[in-house]
Amino acid sequence: MAASTFNTLYRSIKKGVLSPVYYLTGDEDVLKEEIVNLCVATVLDPAARAFSFDQRYADELDAESFTALVDTPPLLAERRVVWIKGLERWRKNSKNWKALLSYVQDPATPTVLILTQGAGEKPDRTLGAKTHHASIDRLEPPRLARWVADRVRRAGAKLEEAAVEHLINAVGPDLAMLATEIEKIAAVAGDEPVSRREVEELVGVRRGETLVDWVNAVIERRIPQAIELIDVVLSQSGLTGVRVISSLGTVLLGMRMAREHLDRGAQQRVARDRLLSELRSAKPPGIGNWTSETERWVRAAEKWSVGEIDWAISSAYEADRSLKSTTLMRERDILASMLVEIGARSAQ
Predict the structure, then answer these.
(1) Residues 244-276 pLDDT 10s
(2) For the residues of 91-120, what is the DSSP string, one character each?
(3) 347 has pLDDT over 60
(4) Residue 4 DSSP one-character state
(5) Which of 179, 188, 184, 190 is nearest to 147 (CA)?
(6) Residue 157 to residue 194: CA distance in whole angstroms
(7) Most exposed residue of 2, 163, 290, 333, measured as fewest CB within 10 angstroms of its CB?
(8) Packing angle between helix 196-203 and helix 161-171, nearest 10 degrees?
(9) Minimal CA–CA distance to 166: which of 206, 193, 128, 126?
């Protein structure tokens, strides 16, 4: 049976349809925690939470303590919730693992057991087949904007649409970092929706100085401006040279695909629609709103030849290698050198 998605699982729990054992894998740990919180809120009254909700890291438990934990009856409630984090820390064929597989064959009726596995870890097929397995992956762009708006609402605040867009551009798609910034915004928000300018002040990243703005400067061939923005972008929380290069590389590859469609005679609209179809099929992570991104790629690709894009991709690749291997050059110098190479090629 195929793994459930976040949306499917969230809706079923919201309706009160609960499974005895959940196995949550995938790359988005924040959403896994949201599933746990929803289970707890669905199963337990607030007064019973302290008595009938247990959370443990897997490496805190041996086979005996695991069995005792899941077999403990609920107190002040009809059911209880047990959350075991970091399941990848249990070796396969260990006593812990054997105890777990034995339990999921015949789980205790009053217990809802939630097993979460860290990002980047491969799901176990046997466990996935014996539990309600859900793969909690990165949010697609439209869902990310809705998640931000909903998280802001639950924090007791409101954001204007432009403020949501700027927050995502400034912070990126990392939900943990977005949640932190949303808490900061909610702490000072009043009754009126928070504006983009207010978000700029609170997050500390102004419009025109985000990572997206830097990438736009590069692909629009405003190389001197891109060089000036390097220090501003790298000073922002969570941004490293590697992440900056990764974002640029994604856009350059998108431009390369767009250029191929244009060179085959496709009109701008047709090229955009074909790219959008390819994105919806591949569902790559780390890309903003797909519709606006494909339009961005096509518009930029019209200003570049295939050879120029390939040169820029090669330069970005070499910069990425340097960032990951050298301790002699500063990130700023590596990025500036890459931009000079791209600019020199464009001037030829």
Answers:
(1) 999 999 999 999 999 999 988 888 888 888 888
(2) PTTSHHHHHHHHHHHS--TTEEEEEE--TT
(3) no
(4) B
(5) 179
(6) 8
(7) 2
(8) 30
(9) 206
